[in-house]
Amino acid sequence: xxxxxxxxxxxxxxxxxxxxxxxKIEEAAYGPHHWAKSSxxxxxxxxxxxxxxxxxxxxxxxxxxxxxxxxxEGHITTIAVKKDYLRNHIGEAIIHKILEDCYENGVKYLTxxxxxxxxxxxxxYEKYGFQSLGTRKGYYQxxxxxxxxxxxxxxxxxxxxxxxxxxxxxxxxxxxxx
Length: 178
Description:
single chain; alpha+beta; Aminopeptidase; 8-stranded mixed sheet; 5 helices
């Protein structure tokens, strides 16, 4: 259960002004092997990259994610939510924004890596049509943990779109997304 409950979240493109707060969340979520501040600044000028922040109505940055769009594939590079705000559907709202951008930009497939032990994240990704299609052995530097490689089917397929719309309808009953 989260320590802080919210009913509304604002998802917007990440700016350079957000990076200090993003790095704090990144450090807390990923420990000593987190992305450097310079990596996020580099991503701001990467033409393939799309990064987003999740903020409360009061403006507190509580989550973020990034993707790369390469032709018709999208790769979720990083995603995290502030620990005090977990279980508020913030990560799910960010995934919704990522998928909407993929639809708008003709990105057909999404992929990501996730720690094999991160069951809550795996369940969320599976809810949104990701399937584990392989493993990267010893992927995580801090403990040599394996990463699951997860992919969606073509997000333009009717079956995928129908499940996605059902998920979004339910999500919007739980949290107001702006």
